[in-house]
Design brief:
heterodimer; A: about 170 residues; mainly alpha; Four Helix Bundle (Hemerythrin (Met), subunit A); 6 helices; extended; B: about 350 residues; two-stranded antiparallel sheet; about 65% helix; globular; disordered N terminus
Chain lengths: ~170, ~350
């Protein structure tokens, strides 16, 4: 296996464990950002440059900033953490355990087959223009619907921010 | 496997770019004071060395020898990580900026650019969006309510202005058809054609990008995260010695990088008017070789790019000492209700102009 792959997997797993086991929620968020970075490294190894960059911009650059934003406001730490009832703990353990069961069951029968014979490797496959061609030909309708959804969300945000009649700020 | 940049020339270029960003940022601190003094009709720094040119050195010595102070209840690790992150993210973005065209020696040719990738614009955008972590983490780890408020302001301001900035970049992407900054630069000047810089095709987009650049680099009139009239010192209230130095320094590195990006995207990058005519004149009238004429043009182009960058840096400082600070609600209103709709309008307008073949 490629040494970079091993290194990135190591960092990804270690920081993912850090997300779960860190006592301080801010540390958890920072570990999660590190996980996203190593996932972006994996995308680069898979020749998907665009996906790697967008993963950094959207997840590490925007969504995680909002996470950090909220967690900083909440001021969560050991002293203020409310005691969770036993029922909640049992329910969480059951839910997590069944998710693990499903994942193991799904991955149990996976056979690594490799690339089918006769496949020609296209080095441009993850590049922006290839992706764009695919999105605008084979997946045009879902792409357009998603963009309409984004536009609606954006217009909504601008409308919420608009000053209402008679409102005074200062 | 990844294609790592060839060692040798490329590593020299990377080292020079790194050193130049630091040097320019150092002298930005000096330029800031000289320009402030000029605009306020004062003398400015003139004690350390001729014309005060050694002032940045004196400041560095002061910063390094001051007491390292950790506030009580601060998160020690993150308190140190914050300024380091601010500096790292500031320095990372200069990797993809094309500082010059090709230099050729014999059969070897290399780009005056750290790394040439086909996602250059996305790289810049991604690194800019990470820049806020340094401020947020530092502000939170200080265990001070003013620092935390500064950090929160920085986060919401950056996210708000990133949207408009990204959409103004999309309009550039629409006319260039590529994300590679080198390709975008080369498209702005074609031999034997009357090709205009992108500023002519994208005046609205450039204005949006410029305003967002001020917000992203936390410069006046949008320096709300460190607004001293409301927040003492904002996110770096508790910082002293070189950790404060790194924060202040990363701001100047950011200004340098964002000026370079604006020059590359909108002002032709390393192109300058009549470069091909000048090259042909050297070849035909002075009987130079093609390579040496091309190399000379490349070097002149690099000088030209740096002149454009310095002009933008001066503009940043000019604005700082001219305009007062915005109020926070005004800042948010400008970002969300003016810049974002304007950026959407700009995208639609650009699309229409491309459709009707105007640009």
């Amino acid at each position: 296996m490629h040494p970079l792959f091993l290194f990135l997997s190591f960092v990804a797993l270690l920081s993912a464990l850090g997300v779960v086991f860190a006592k301080n929620p801010v540390h958890s968020v920072l570990f999660l950002i590190l996980t996203f970075f190593s996932l972006s490294g994996h995308y680069l190894l898979l020749n998907a440059q665009f996906l790697a960059a967008v993963n950094i911009i959207v997840y590490a650059g925007a969504i995680m900033v909002l996470f950090l934003f909220v967690i900083m406001f909440l001021n969560l730490n050991v002293d203020t953490e409310p005691h969770k009832p036993a029922l909640a703990k049992v329910a969480a353990a059951v839910a997590g355990g069944s998710l693990l069961l499903i994942l193991v069951a799904a991955l149990k029968d996976v056979q690594p087959t490799g690339v089918p014979a006769g496949t020609v490797f296209n080095s441009q496959i993850g590049m922006v223009d290839q992706l764009g061609m695919k999105l605008y030909t084979d997946f045009l309708l879902p792409f357009e619907l998603a963009s309409v959804l984004f536009l609606v969300a954006m217009v909504g945000a601008v409308m919420l921010g608009k000053r209402e009649a008679g409102e005074r700020n200062f | 496997m990844l294609e790592l940049p060839a060692l040798g020339w490329q590593s020299i270029v990377i080292f020079v770019v790194f050193a130049l960003s630091l040097l320019i940022a150092t002298y930005c601190t000096y330029a800031e004071r000289v320009i402030a003094a000029f605009l306020q009709d004062r003398v400015g720094p003139d004690r350390a060395g001729p014309y005060g040119l050694l002032q940045p050195l004196a400041d560095a010595v002061k910063m390094f020898t001051k007491e390292e102070f950790f506030p009580g209840g601060a998160n020690k690790v993150l308190f140190v990580v914050g300024p380091c992150l601010a500096m790292i993210t500031a320095l990372m973005s200069s990797a993809v900026i094309p500082f010059g065209n090709t230099m050729s020696f014999g059969n070897n040719a290399f780009f005056l650019q750290g790394i040439e990738v086909n996602i250059g614009m996305l790289w810049i955008f991604g690194v800019v969006s990470l820049g806020v972590y340094g401020v947020m983490i530092g502000g939170w780890a200080s265990n001070n309510k003013f620092s935390l408020l500064g950090a929160i302001r920085a986060a919401s301001q950056n996210i708000s202005y990133e949207l408009a900035m990204g959409m103004s970049l999309i309009a550039v992407l629409m006319i260039s058809g590529t994300l590679s900054l080198r390709e975008i630069t080369l498209q702005q000047s074609v031999a034997g054609e009357w090709q205009m810089w992108n500023i002519v095709k994208q005046p609205i987009g450039f204005l949006i990008f410029l305003v967002c650049a001020f917000a992203e680099t936390n410069r006046t009139p949008f320096d709300l995260p460190e607004c001293e009239t409301e927040l003492v010192g904002g996110y770096h209230t508790e910082y002293s010695s070189m950790k404060l130095g790194l924060y202040l320094f990363s701001e100047y590195v950011n200004i340098f990088v964002v000026s370079a990006v604006m020059s590359v995207l909108y002002f032709g990058g390393f192109n300058f008017p009549f470069q091909y005519e000048l090259r042909d004149w050297f070849i035909n009238s002075q009987s130079w070789e093609l390579n040496s004429a091309q190399n000379l043009i490349t070097l002149l182009g690099t000088v030209g790019l740096f002149l454009k960058i310095f002009a933008f840096i001066f503009f940043f400082m000019w604005i700082r000492w001219t305009l007062p600070r915005f109020r926070y609600d005004q800042l948010m209103r400008l970002g969300w209700t003016i810049l974002i709709p304007l950026a959407v309008f700009n995208i639609v307008l650009t699309g229409a102009l491309i459709l009707f073949g105007v640009i």
